[in-house]
Amino acid sequence: MNKPSRIQIVNVVLFLALFISFSAFYFINETSEFLKGSTTFASRTEVVDKFDIPVLVICFEPGYKPSIYGNITEDISYYFYQDIDSIKEEQKRQNLADFLNSASYKLNEDIQIEIWMTNGNKTVNYYNLENGQKAMDNFKIDVYQTFTLSNGMCYVIESTEKVSPWIGMQVFIKDLNSENGDKLSKVNLFIASHETWYGIITSVWPYFELEKHSFSFNTKLFWWMDMSVTSLSYQNGHTSVEDCLENWMLTNEDCKKCSPLFFSFKNKEQNCQSKEDNKCWYYWAFYGKNYNNYRRCLKPMKITIYKAKSQSYQRPLIQNDTVELFFSYASDEIKIEEETLMIGTSSYIGSVGGSLGLFLGFSFFTYLSCCLQNVFDLCDKCKQ
């Protein structure tokens, strides 16, 4: 057996030294970062000819009528485990559903909400909102009420229609109890999208920040809301938050099979009527691992985020019992943000392969050619 030459020994030592350097200073760190799956967001701007109409969630202060619920500030969950002295005895004997319904501000009984769709000085559509779905001039709009833990009963106004960036939306919110003890002091408005409003139940949005504005009655101010739109896509999440919440609720084997009041926004199941049933659901949903699963459901895979700059103008003709808002789009551009892996599979292969070439002169072409040449040489020897 021939003794290896000096140059062969030097080549082996040099190869090992460079391979160890490559592994220690690059490969291990790059592989670790790749396996972490760290992400970043890539942004771009596009011009669009249609926008989704934002989902408006309208809540009030006080959240419940003082004449029934009393002048207390605790959220409604307080009622699940504590008798409230300021609640009248006959109302304490009601089931929870009837009690909350009687204590809530009801549409077209205690409050009135009107929406005008405008194009310049022309009114395109007019709506006096009611619970349920309403269609006018082929334009559909859904309105449903939802009980929340800390905002009272709120109204969700939603439409799947798309509109031109130059269409404006004017909203009038009128307090019909302005002359009695149940008059409202403030409107809390959340500007959301189809997959982002569900956090209103607990006022928790763990993965993004929802736009919120508050407006007081008795100010005679006209509010202009100038909206910018961002489309946000995550690497993972739920295609339907509602479906995720429904499947999560089906895992509850400890409480009565009914829909707790704070998850009754689509009225697909019979509502839990009693205080005890709602209390059972409250503790099941918002304590321990079940609450973590609830929070995970609030992460959609794709959402639209609205930001609104508000500007007020004095308008003496506005009545004291009315809040008047006007929504418009700041431009016909939408910002698109997409979550991407900082080191994807193709980037990892390219980066590691390039570094192997730099440190060791590695290339697939060279090594594959060498292997094929050895195969051919072996075949030739076999033929001989």
What does this structure look like?
By secondary structure, this protein is an alpha+beta fold. It has one domain (46-340). It is built from ten helices and 15 strands. Helix 1 runs antiparallel to helix 9 (345-360) and helix 6 runs antiparallel to helix 8. The chain is elongated and about 110 Å long.
Give keywords.
single chain, 384 residues, alpha+beta, seven-stranded mixed sheet, elongated
Could you outline the blueprint of secondary structure elements for this entry?
Layout (H helix, E strand, L loop, with lengths): L5 H31 L2 E9 L3 E2 L2 E7 L4 H4 L8 H4 L7 H4 L3 H8 L7 E9 L2 E7 L3 E5 L2 E9 L5 E6 L3 E2 L3 E9 L10 E7 L18 E6 L4 E13 L7 H10 L24 H12 L2 H9 L4 E13 L7 E20 L3 H16 L3 H20 L1
Parallel strand pairs: 13-15
Antiparallel strand pairs: 1-15, 2-9, 3-8, 3-11, 4-5, 4-10, 6-7, 7-8, 10-15, 11-12, 13-14
Helix pairs in contact: 1-9, 6-8
